[in-house]
């Protein structure tokens, strides 16, 4: 019960901080919108081309937008000493990491998934593709966040470590990107059933949640 109470308190704390200072969620949404809005200008007015590669555009935009604010996931707590207090809390470090990652996903990944149908209008997606994209982002963005958490933990003690973080985690996000786009394309009449890549995407999120939580906790302990 103590562990659950600590997790709830940490999640509520991070959500309150995100709401109070604006957080990275709004920045991620704005960055997401900027990429989705600019790509059609680069590709031209071919709506068929836009609708065909629209899911890939949305997923790539989501991957890049997820990086916004990840470098501050643990760094802010490292700088003000909060991380030391969390280390001495009754809950293990893995639970602290899990709580902070969940709070970060609620303010970044979840809004991206919910906003994707609206942004899908900019790339000429039909209703089926919009719904599939939203579902795949809802399932796949936790994997992106947990993978990013490992990089955030490794760079927590490095000032301005955002570029290093991106170099570390972007290659690891490629499988999630591939299966996210594949699932969306399958829903729009692909050669494989929609559930196949969706289940793989779900598996990637579960694996990332387990490995990412323990790896990030180990990295934070190592940096002390």
UniProtKB/TrEMBL annotation:
Keywords: Cell inner membrane, Cell membrane, Cytochrome c-type biogenesis, Membrane, Transmembrane, Transmembrane helix, Transport. It comes from the Bacteria. The chain crosses the membrane at residues 21-43, 49-70, 102-125, 131-156, 163-183, 198-220. It is a multi-pass membrane protein. The keyword Heme does not apply. Belongs to the CcmB/CycW/HelB family. Required for the export of heme to the periplasm for the biogenesis of c-type cytochromes. NCBIfam families: ccmB (TIGR01190). This is Heme exporter protein B. It comes from Methylobacterium marchantiae. The gene is ccmB.
